[in-house]
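Hi V.,

Quick status before I head out on leave. The structure for the redesign project is tokenized and pasted below; the design run finished overnight.
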């Protein structure tokens, strides 16, 4: 490894080890990472001050704070589209409902709800009756599947960041019935601006990138004998649907039907126009 040059340094780094004998998968990832990182340095002709700025950025992103106990590394992989790309690769050739990012706002002890329950209080929200079925890839109903749901209210706020909402507002756990059906009442959620006062936000601003998430509802499904599913369902026509900052919008789009006629309002005991929508989830066998 004498006389290293621009042309030999990349291979020299890759060769410096046992060629993957100890850990073949790590070696595969490492080799590809070294090749691509070196290619970036060559392509942009990275300067020493820029390299130092990059080191400082990684340091700051990794810093644990009270507000973000895990640092911003997770957010960084979301904002770079890496988290979503990993899921896209996982879902190739799957006949199940596409998976999606869990995000940082899931809680495991959401209130248990009964079929048809309303999951949150929001005087300004537009009511949405959401229903559907949980099925296997052959279209067979899955009874007693656990559905966990969480979403922001009509102002784009989650209960845990908004003292005006009771704990557990717009969260719930449901079980499907014998026909695999679920049904609950909620409000149409709004999109929201992700917190951007840390190092990731700084870089996004310098790149002219906004930090908005398109309106969505989070779901987690599990049932004995099936692969668990974590996903998000987006609202058709919502702002930022074409430019969600985490690149999470795929084909899980909820089509809302508006109801405003007097017979419809009376049938659902509503005083103002409301929406309904159906969405079926498909789970893979284990
Ligand atoms: Fe969310």
């Amino acid at each position: 490894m004498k006389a290293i040059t621009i042309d030999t340094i990349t291979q020299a780094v890759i060769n410096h080890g046992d060629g993957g004998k100890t850990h073949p998968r790590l070696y595969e990832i490492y080799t590809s990472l070294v090749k691509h990182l070196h290619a970036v340095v060559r392509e942009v002709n990275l300067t020493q001050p820029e390299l130092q700025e990059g080191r400082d950025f990684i340091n700051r992103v990794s810093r644990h704070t009270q507000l973000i106990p895990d640092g911003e590394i997770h957010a960084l992989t979301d904002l770079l589209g890496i988290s979503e790309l990993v899921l896209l690769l996982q879902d190739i050739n799957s006949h199940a409902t596409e998976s999606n990012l869990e995000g940082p706002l899931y809680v495991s002890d959401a209130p248990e709800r009964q079929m048809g329950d309303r999951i949150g209080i929001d005087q300004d929200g537009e009511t949405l009756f959401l229903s559907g079925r949980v099925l296997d890839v052959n279209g067979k109903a899955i009874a007693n599947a656990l559905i966990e749901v969480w979403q922001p209210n009509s102002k784009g706020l989650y209960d845990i960041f908004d003292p005006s909402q009771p704990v557990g507002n717009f969260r719930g756990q449901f079980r499907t019935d014998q026909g695999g059906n679920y049904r609950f009442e909620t409000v149409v959620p709004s999109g929201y601006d992700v917190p951007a006062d840390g190092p990731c936000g700084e870089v996004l601003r310098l790149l002219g990138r906004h930090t908005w998430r398109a309106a969505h509802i989070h779901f987690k499904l599990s049932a004995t004998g099936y692969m668990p599913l974590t996903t998000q369902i987006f609202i058709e026509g919502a702002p930022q649907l074409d430019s969600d900052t985490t690149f999470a919008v795929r084909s899980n789009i909820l089509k809302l039907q508006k109801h405003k006629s007097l017979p419809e309002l009376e049938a659902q005991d509503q005083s103002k126009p409301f929406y309904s929508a159906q969405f079926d989830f498909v789970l893979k066998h284990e």
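Above is the designed sequence. The domain at 95-283 is CATH 2.60.130.10 (Protocatechuate 3,4-Dioxygenase, subunit A).

G. will cover questions while I'm gone.

Best,
W.
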